[in-house]
Amino acid sequence: MMVDLCKMKNRIRIECIQGDITNQPDLDVVVNAANARLMPGGGVAGAIHRAAGPELAEACLPLAPIQPGEAVMTEGFGLPNGHIIHCLGPVYGVDEPSDALLADCYRNAVQLADQHGLAAIGFPALSTGAFGYPMEAAARVALGTLLAEAERLASVRLIRFVLFSERDRELHQRVLDELAARV
Ligand code: AR6
């Protein structure tokens, strides 16, 4: 049932689904779990560059390198979305403080989307793959940051977490339910 899958905050819907970040055609922008050079890699970055095509790497060249916590935007090229926001998450236990840097990613990405007048944004679980961030700790930082940020957004109306496994989706939904009940 729809109402079980989302939380409304300041008329913003936050939802957690299981799926592939490269296959979300109803979103204006998807977020890439990038590397500092903004080049193709494994995981999300590999999938996004494959789906977007080689023009994406060309468009990224003048924007790189980026720092942990930073977010930059390109167009979507072959992706079904108009835009891609590239975030460099912290390498867990290396880029410190990891929680503040991960929060910066989510805050900077959603603000960038809002500044460009976009309404619907999709996030993967940044830093939880190759960069080693424990999933539940990352979910608490991500969802806590976005719930706090929701008050300040003017154009963003939908925030979708796209988790690769059903287990990760359930974990994010549980954390979202818990955090949203407190605010
Ligand atoms: N859609 C949604 N989620 C996905 C997808 C997908 N298509 N593919 C993987 N995930 P990662 P990071 C999940 O490693 O930890 C790259 O090589 C995955 O299960 O993509 O920020 C870059 O080049 C995990 O939970 O991102 C960087 O060097 C989450 O997305 C580095 O990895 C993030 O996994 C970035 O590492």
UniProtKB/TrEMBL annotation:
Signal peptide: none
Entry superkingdom: Bacteria
Macro domain sequence ranges: 1-180
Record-linked SMART domains: A1pp
PANTHER family according to UniProt: GANGLIOSIDE INDUCED DIFFERENTIATION ASSOCIATED PROTEIN 2-RELATED, MACRO DOMAIN-CONTAINING PROTEIN
InterPro entries, per database record: Macro_dom, Macro_dom-like
Name of the protein described by the UniProt record: O-acetyl-ADP-ribose deacetylase (Regulator of RNase III), contains Macro domain
SUPFAM superfamilies reported for this sequence: Macro domain-like (SSF52949)
